[in-house]
Design brief:
The protein has a single domain, classed as Rossmann fold (3-Layer(aba) Sandwich). 50% of the residues lie in helices and 19% in strands. Helix 4 runs antiparallel to helix 5.
């Protein structure tokens, strides 16, 4: 394959700090990395939101934390912005809710599957109720050398 390749990794699984170091090593000089990261928007979020992120992503921080990790990894900041909430509804949560509804019908008698679907359905509800507490920030960085 000629030219740059695109790869998609769920970098939050290893933590943003580690992920940036790993990605830097895999980028060619001049290569760019674009990624999103969940970040807090306000101090002391509601306990339900805090508990959910403590379970799924306990190391979630603030934009300023991610910027510091970018600098520590030796990457150049190109830019960043907060993804609008409607982008998540149009492209993620609405299709997710449709699929959950389909699966509820298919597995209506399977209590274990329904419990998982209930848990998955909670995420869009948290977003609907508490979007002011957290966001997804989009970052673009470059390896300079």
């Amino acid at each position: 394959m000629n030219g740059p390749s695109l790869r998609f990794w769920p970098i939050f699984l290893i933590g943003i700090e580690n992920a940036l170091h790993v990605c830097r090593e895999r980028l060619c000089p001049g290569g760019c990395l674009a990624f999103t990261e969940a970040v807090w928007r306000k101090e002391n979020p509601p306990s339900e939101v805090k508990a959910s992120f403590d379970m799924d992503y306990p190391t979630m921080g603030w934009v300023i934390d991610v910027l510091a990790f970018i600098d520590q990894a030796g990457l150049e900041r190109i830019g960043h912005f907060t993804l609008p909430d409607e982008a998540w509804w149009d492209d993620f949560y609405t299709p997710m809710q449709r699929r959950i509804a389909e699966l509820r019908g298919k597995y209506a008698t399977d209590r274990d599957t329904l419990a998982v679907l209930d848990q998955l359905a909670r995420e869009p509800e948290l977003q609907r109720q508490y979007a002011d507490s957290y966001a997804r920030e989009f970052f673009v960085v470059r390896r300079t050398c």
